[in-house]
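Tutorial handout. Part one gives the primary structure; part two gives the three-dimensional structure as tokens.
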Amino acid sequence: MPPVIDIRHIHRVFETEAGMAHILHNISLTVAQGEFVAITGPSGSGKSTLMNILGCLDTPTAGTYLLEGLNVAQLDDEELAEVRSERIGFVFQSFNLLSRMTVLDNVMLPLVYTGYAHGHREERAVSALAQAGLPVDHYDHKIGELSGGQMQRVAIARALVNDPAIILADEPTGNLDSATGQMVLESFHALQRTGKTIVLITHDPHIAAEADRIVTIRDGRLFHEGSADGSLPGTAVSGRTLSDLPHTRSEGGSL
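Part two.
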């Protein structure tokens, strides 16, 4: 079985008013099905740019990204949108939920344009909420009536509702206190036990330590890759210089 994620010699260069900004340098990484991997690094290290590429929200300037064996570079915009909708679940620090809608309606929202009948959408949403660990008596609550931890569980359920190959979580505990954050992390562990693949972006080493494997990005380079217990030594990975890259124009972006 191929890795869920297989990125090879990824570079990302942005063209800015100040010149060319080389954000990612020669990044190679694989993530197997059912793995829980944390990508960590300081602010400005390139980890969010890497997540955007993994989530098919951005494309690399050079290198190859295979998602479940599918070469992402060969997809057009419509096909990329379909991959994002069906194969990738996103969980964000800010939840991105609609406050005036109920919990159940928020989770069903990604299914509205899939052609499923309402009953089937509701069935899938209930299943996703159960996986995320939210009690049944909260399903008809409005989002504004929930705690931060409960809202993040709803966001996790929404990410699960299309049965994605991978869950990408960007600082999912950043707006939560330590105890609530730990409860959310337990939800990720429970999902991993069902076979889900999880990639979590964080600047917090304590959060990263919850994963099976930690990947550290510094200055756009893969600096360290090892198990969460530190049993594998860190290595700095050198990349090609900017002059080695193909002359590809890239539109600007942010870290």
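Part three, for discussion. The CA atoms of residues 222 and 237 lie 6 Å apart. Residues 231-255 have pLDDT under 50 and may be disordered.
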